[in-house]
Specification:
One of its GO terms (biological process) is threonyl-tRNA aminoacylation. Its cofactor is Zn(2+). It holds the Pfam family TGS. One of its GO terms (molecular function) is tRNA binding. This protein is about 35% helix and about 30% strand. It contains 21 helices and 34 strands. By secondary structure, it is an alpha+beta fold. It folds into four domains: about 5-60, Ubiquitin-like (UB roll); about 85-240, Threonyl-tRNA Synthetase, Chain A, domain 2 (2-Layer Sandwich); about 260-530, Bira Bifunctional Protein, Domain 2 (BirA Bifunctional Protein, domain 2, 2-Layer Sandwich); about 540-640, Anticodon-binding domain (Rossmann fold), CATH 3.40.50.800. The termini are far apart. α8 crosses α17.
């Protein structure tokens, strides 16, 4: 036997007998042997005790490699399975996975594992680590594993796709399969944490049984684990679902409709302020606002291509009994096309800008729903501009300026531009017209280059009908999300036979530009809630001023007078008339993150003044009511930006 191992630097090592990954690493250097956690062998991750016996390309993985971290996390998932099955012999095991966020293990038993049981499981894992048990890769006959897992329908299902011999890992009496590579010894694990439990459908299908998913994470260094746990605590603190509940902004109740948010008065106020703001900005920019029905004849979506490309995301059509099939709209563009088509259009009218806060419906699976971010009913800040070909770049720049103006007012600064192109090899997803795609993509790129803006290019992220500029933001939870989009469309004007009368008296085809400034109201308010951590700037806050009389009998009437004056001027103010101690009321106002708390006693009442306590500070200041109103107005007018 003779073979060569090619290393990442191109050098080769020759062997005349099988050698383990670990011995290869030690042969390269003593330090690499100590640091090795796994290897990539011909592109596949393998354990350090994997035997090399043929020509291969090998890269040794250490704790500095992402794949090395994944091996560590897979190892902890393996230890969790072993500990959980030892603690609960009746436990059935489903899928497991390590990823950039940690790892999970799916389990099932009559009484599902509770989050309060995680500390005991952590202790059991810690004991396995302390004992330093060997974890060995083994080849096991499929029939032996079927005998082992005969009472576990989930493992039996996973075994169906395996061959006669199955690659598995063994630690003592515990054996499991489905892992690419694990650390060679449980004692190699140092820093881990079990995080949470949640329901998860078997293999992600809502028609399958609900299992219990145990989440955890692991790191090679304690400092990295501590930083990650701190990050997770911050995420939990910012979670819009938690804040929405604590501030009574919205709720979703599966009993009356999963993925269908109910906006409470405070949440409805935030939404109403945003909607009025957006409409006013668009009207000032030349848009004509419309209302169009949420139902449309299915034929329109067949013409547009949505039925062919997005049928799985659309609700089933409703048969009206006379041959008419109505569909809950998943997109607003066919509706705005009908508005455009309702009149004969002239070149003198172009650009024609049509906008709407359009309600849409998407057939989202239950497992994908999440607070306001993934819902079944949503309202999109939608707009479509119909332009002549020579107007495309100017209109594109105008839309982009509007988006930037809106971002400034909401203090959105962490974003970047992504030009999203089609994948020419994906003929199922994208409208087949090479000339159209090349022309529109070149036009979009040219517009960005003319504006001198930096951007990244992403193949396969375009809409099915045309390329687009996506403006990608970082959410407070660290996720990359599309906030705004501008899309060029030569296809729908063709399919719906749109035209305008040109200067020459002949009919011409317009270009359609789809654009969304802040996306859906639901997702945008979820984003803002997490960015602001529930402390909305004054212009957006559902309650801008909380008024607390020191004594209800002595100062209640003055509190009403102050409130009424604020309401008359268009501010949102309330008086706390509860029979509670003043200190409790002040703390409650801070908990509800009201921008300004006014405390009114004898001094304030006698001098027509207020004692002002801004949110998040220890500062208090007495001033005249008129001065406070002027300062409050300046705060609102500046969109609460620092002066």
């Amino acid at each position: 036997m003779s073979f060569s191992i090619t290393l990442p630097d191109g050098s080769k090592k020759d062997f005349d007998q099988a050698v383990s990954v670990l011995d290869l690493a030690k042969g390269i250097s003593t330090s690499l042997g100590k640091a090795a956690v796994a290897a990539k062998v011909d592109g596949e991750v393998k354990s350090v005790n994997f035997m090399l016996e043929k020509d291969s390309e090998v890269a040794i993985l250490t704790d500095k490699d992402e794949e090395g971290l994944a091996v560590l996390r897979d190892t902890v998932a393996f230890l969790l399975e072993a500990a959980a099955q030892a603690k609960y012999p009746e436990l059935r095991l489903g899928e497991h996975e390590a990823n950039e966020d940690g790892f999970f293990v799916d389990t099932d038993k009559e009484d599902q594992i509770k989050v309060t049981e995680l500390p005991e499981l952590e202790k059991a894992i810690a004991k396995l680590i302390k004992n330093g048990q060997a974890i060995e890769p083994v080849m096991v006959k499929k029939s032996e594993l079927e005998a082992q897992f005969k009472n576990d329908p989930f493992k039996m299902e996973l075994l169906k796709s395996e061959g006669d011999e199955v690659a598995a890992f063994k630690m003592g009496d515990f054996v499991d399969f489905g892992f690419a590579a694990l650390l060679p010894n449980s004692g190699k694990v140092k820093h881990f944490k079990l995080l949470s439990v949640a329901g998860a459908y078997w293999q992600g299908k809502s028609s399958n049984p609900m299992l219990q998913r145990l989440f955890g994470t692991a790191f090679f260094k304690e400092a990295d684990l501590e930083a990650d746990l701190k990050r997770r605590a911050e995420i939990k603190e910012r979670d819009h679902r938690t804040i929405g509940r604590d501030l009574d902004l919205f709720f979703v109740d599966p009993k009356v409709g999963a993925g269908l948010p109910y906006w409470m008065p405070k949440g409805a106020t935030i939404r109403r302020v945003i909607e009025r703001y957006i409409i006013d900005k668009e009207l000032a920019d030349g848009y004509q606002h419309v209302y169009t029905p949420v139902l449309m004849n299915l034929d329109a979506y067949k013409t547009s291509g949505h039925w062919a490309h997005y049928r799985e995301d659309m609700f089933p059509p409703m048969d009206m009994g006379d041959g008419e099939m109505l569909e809950l709209r998943p997109m607003n563009c066919p509706s705005h096309i009908q508005v455009y088509k309702h009149h004969i259009r002239s070149y003198r009218e172009l650009p024609i800008r049509i906008a709407e806060l359009g309600m849409m419906h998407r057939y989202e699976k239950s497992g994908a729903l999440s607070g306001l971010q993934r819902v079944r009913e949503m309202t999109l800040n939608d707009g479509h501009t119909f332009v002549a070909l020579e107007q495309v770049q100017e209109e594109f720049a105008k839309i982009l300026k509007l988006i930037m103006d809106v971002y400034k007012d909401f203090d959105i600064t962490d974003y970047y531009f992504r030009l999203s192109y089609r994948d020419p090899k994906n003929t199922d997803k994208y409208f087949a017209n090479d000339e159209m795609w090349e022309r529109s993509q070149k036009m979009l790129k040219g517009a960005m280059d003319d504006l001198g803006l930096d951007y990244v290019e992403a193949e396969g992220e375009a809409a099915f009908y045309g390329p687009k500029l996506d403006i990608q933001t970082k959410t407070a939870l660290g996720n990359d999300e599309t906030m705004s989009t501008i899309q060029l469309d030569f296809m729908l004007p063709e399919r719906f036979d749109l035209s305008y009368v040109g200067q020459d008296g002949e009919e011409h085809r317009p270009v359609m530009i789809h654009r969304g400034i802040v996306g859906t109201m639901e997702r945008f308010i979820a984003y803002l809630t997490e960015i602001y951590k529930g402390a909305f700037p004054t212009w957006l806050a559902p309650e801008q001023v909380e008024i607390i009389p020191v004594n209800l009998d002595a100062h209640g009437e003055y509190a009403k007078k102050v409130r009424d004056e604020l309401l008359k001027r268009g501010f949102r103010a309330e008086v706390d008339f509860r029979n509670e101690k003043m200190g409790y009321k002040i703390r409650e106002s801070q908990t509800q993150k009201v921008p300004y708390t006014l405390v009114l006693g004898d001094d304030e009442m006698n001098s027509n003044a207020v004692n002002v306590r801004p949110y998040g500070t220890e500062k208090q200041e007495s001033m005249s009511l008129d001065q406070f109103i002027n300062e409050l107005q300046a705060d609102v007018d500046s969109y609460s930006r620092e002066k």
